Amino acid sequence: MMILGSMRQEEIWNTDTARHYDTPGVGMFAPEVVGPAVERLAGLAGDGRALEFAIGTGRVAVPLAERGVPVTGIELSRPMIDQLRTKVDEATIPVVVGDMATATAPGEYTLVYLVYNTISNLLTQAEQVACFRNAARHLTPGGRFVIELWVPELRKLPPGQDAVVWHREPGYIGLDAYDLLRQHLVSHHFRFDESGQARLFRSPHRYIWPAELDLMAQLAGFELESRHADWNGTEFTAESRSHVSVYRISPGRTAPR
């Protein structure tokens, strides 16, 4: 874990990862997964522009733009941007190359969003706070910052163990190995082809409790507007495995710069 944790994000999200990232029609690309997210984000953007932090290959940005919402992205990985460019050109979805905690995109937006646990790719609390502040810089008064994030599943860890299988289905096993002292984990994604050969992708994360996320938001001038268990608006409870949290800058408040 320490070796992987020391890798740069550019090394993890490389050409090979970008080439195999998209799974059209299934997994996180399934219509029942993408559709509700796009619908909710389009409503939150209203008549304004949207900015996606860590836009990746455009899983959400492309259908959101097709809905008529002007979308801009920030992305650190050039191979992921190259994959996005096989779908849309720069004029359709402009992308700024850079870190989502510090890079700036031109203009102002009514919506900034981070999907599929991506804020946890920032491996320190300071970077995660900086990400909130960066979102605030880009928003118009009253604008919203939306984060989709999983709830740490520490309750599933048996005494003496530091890893848990969080998902399994034919051809796929997802396992998280926790570093409880540093509030870190490494996600292991095992995919098996028809011959039985396994392909492993690993990524390091810093997990965040909802209450800690809310405090980060306050430090950047946001207030929690809503929290649901998913994009469909399911009630968030103590048993929820993930959440979609919407933060808003009050119209009369000035976001920290």
Give a concise summary.
The chain is an alpha/beta fold and 257 residues long. Helix content is 26%, strand content 30%. The protein is globular and about 50 Å long.
Notable features of this structure?
alpha/beta; four-stranded antiparallel β-sheet; 8 helices; globular; 257 residues; disordered N terminus
Question: Which secondary structure elements does this structure contain, and how are they paired or packed?
Answer:
Layout: H1 2-5, H2 9-12, H3 15-21, H4 31-45, E1 50-53, H5 61-66, E2 71-75, H6 78-84, E3 95-97, E4 109-114, H7 125-138, E5 139-150, E6 163-169, E7 172-179, E8 184-192, E9 198-206, H8 210-219, E10 223-228, E11 242-248
Parallel strand pairs: 1-2, 1-4, 2-3, 4-5
Antiparallel strand pairs: 5-11, 6-7, 7-8, 8-9, 10-11
Helix pairs in contact: 3-6
